[in-house]
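ESCALATION

Customer reports they have been waiting on this structure for their group meeting. Please prioritize. Original submission:
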Amino acid sequence: MSIKDHALLVSLSVNKPQMTQKDSKATADAESANNAHGAGQYRKDLYPKSLVQPISLIESQARAYIESTTYPWGRGENMLPSARFMQFAERIGKYELEFDQAVTAFLNNWSNVMMHAQASQGGLFDPSAYPDLTDLRSAFRFKINYRPITDVTDFRVAMQEEELAALRQQVEEATKESMNAVLRAPLERLKEVVSRLHEVTGRTERVAIDKRTGRTEVRAPIFRDSVCENIAEEINLLHDFAEILPDNIIALAKTVIDTTPHPQQLRDDPAKRKEVNIQTTALLASINSMLED
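Update from on-call: job pushed to the front of the queue and completed.
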């Protein structure tokens, strides 16, 4: 089936105003003091990092979410399964709202921003370096872009056969390159989460002293639920791409999920830990072999 029928491309654009500025006087003073010329430049933070941190944090969270629910396509774009579009759009909409709210809070606190900037910059503070508030507000933007995956049949223009052949080859090569990255992504991400399961199942019991009794106790290794939950999340994403992924990757995913126990089993059953450790060794070998093909 065509990849166009089961996925689309998404990209996130986040614009922010200039956050740093070269200070010519500080640069000249440093060069003069050190008998240097053209050795570098001094850049000052225009805004206190603690006050812009909430805006940057929301951007980071949004990008992490996109990475977790898509596979990379290239040039800043990611491939999203069509089945996840509504869920994705709702979640991204919340990030956009939070971004706008954080920007509004930053601007509403402008007098405090300038006070902190002047205190931190000291003699380097220059009020003329800051734009008008209206201009500053327009410099912030959070925008998600969607577009279909293009193939040569999408071009509806009259071309000579030679031109069309060249365009077809270019589109096919670009699509093939991106698809190769897409096919590697689920394997690389499965390798990461399976490696983590392999690591934790290879741990041995801990010797600890009970603070109340003073007795030495042997305790099971610590296992976090997230080790198994992360595997389930990766498998769910992979299944949403099932129509466009090769059968061997789908089969591998089934083996991975069948191998993954409930976290409590790992805590309670040493034999199960050993069994899963052996199974994940074989799984990692299979994943590495598929990555090398």
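Sent to customer with the following note: The mean pLDDT is 83.
Escalation resolved.
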